[in-house]
Amino acid sequence: ENKKMAFIAAGMVQSAIHGNAVVRKSSSKSHADIRMSASHKKRVLVIGGTRFSGLYLTKVLGDAGHELVLFNRGSKPVGDKALMVPGETEEAFAKRNKHTSVIVGDRENADQMVSLLKNEKFDVIFDNNGRELSDSKPLIDLFNGKIEQYVYMSSAGVYLKSDMMPHVEGDAEDQKSRHKGKLDTEKYLRESGIPFTSIRPTYIYGALNYNPLEEWFFERIAAGRPIPVPGHGQHLTGLGHVMDLAKGMAACVGNKKAINQIYNIQDKAITFDGMVKACAVAMGKDASSVEIVHYDPKEVDFGKKKGFPMRPQHFFTSNAKALKELDWKIEYDITKGLKDSYENDFKIKMAKGKLKGDFSADDMVLEKKKVALKN
Hints:
Blueprint: E1 13-18, E2 21-26, E3 43-47, H1 52-63, E4 67-72, H2 90-97, E5 100-104, H3 110-117, E6 124-127, H4 133-143, E7 149-153, H5 180-192, E8 196-201, E9 203-205, H6 214-222, E10 227-230, E11 236-241, H7 242-250, E12 261-265, E13 269-271, H8 272-282, E14 292-295, H9 320-325, H10 334-351, H11 360-368
Parallel strand pairs: 3-4, 3-6, 4-5, 6-7, 7-8, 8-12, 9-11, 10-14
Antiparallel strand pairs: 1-2, 11-13
Helix pairs in contact: 1-7, 3-4, 4-5, 6-8, 6-10, 8-10
């Protein structure tokens, strides 16, 4: 995995954009004659690209001038303002859309996907939403030997729970993890010989997050409720802002050091209690004014409800390898990132009445701990 490779690929495509028309010229160079280039713009296939991390990724790649081809169900056409990243200007959005196109299809229909993509040529593929090996194998097999790099979105959830923290690349993996499909895909990527890079984020947060992570804390603090926190509140967990993740993934493109490597992506770790306080500060509140109620999760039967948005254990990684080998740095520390999410997402949802308002799991904890709600 750590071997340095002279990267080879075939069927490289050069694209010249004239207005909205793309003229492609296919190379006939041999497999051994193609070398990875960090300098020229790439023709990039992004699987997905319309939700959260995929949306930010397409912005970063588009702003860098790469030609983007999105493969998705076509629910949002190119130019739909729902695809704008918070804070993005209409001018910047329009500029990147000039070299963005969509192939409409369903990756869950492997035969259809292969049929639609088999005559296409790409330099790099970003597989953003593959969960099982069966999701990604058709793509890997189709483009093996034909692309410079296959960048796969994995998860730090594949690591085996350990007494030695933080998790680093190469640590033991949990073969019973709910992310087992991602482990299987990483294994197949190694065995296939395709040049790949795998990204393992911890908890991703930021504006447009469809996973109610930071929203869980914001909503309770906004309602003036006590915050139920499992255990002693000092479990450390890893957070990474979605823009930092997108830039980390984009930094893999054309980087020979990233070939056949795995990278953890996150900011510093924060305790559960620290997360409550940091969210309060992001909302402009006094952190000491927020009541935290600790409880033993084994003593509360939540049924099918989720009592807390994070796993009640230490869960964080080292990002030292990514910082060293990729042209990448953390731009959104937790304070800045939570402020961004609060201002550009939560406040908008709250104003539109789109919050869940379901505190029934909290009430189970408060009843167990005999904590009364304040008027």
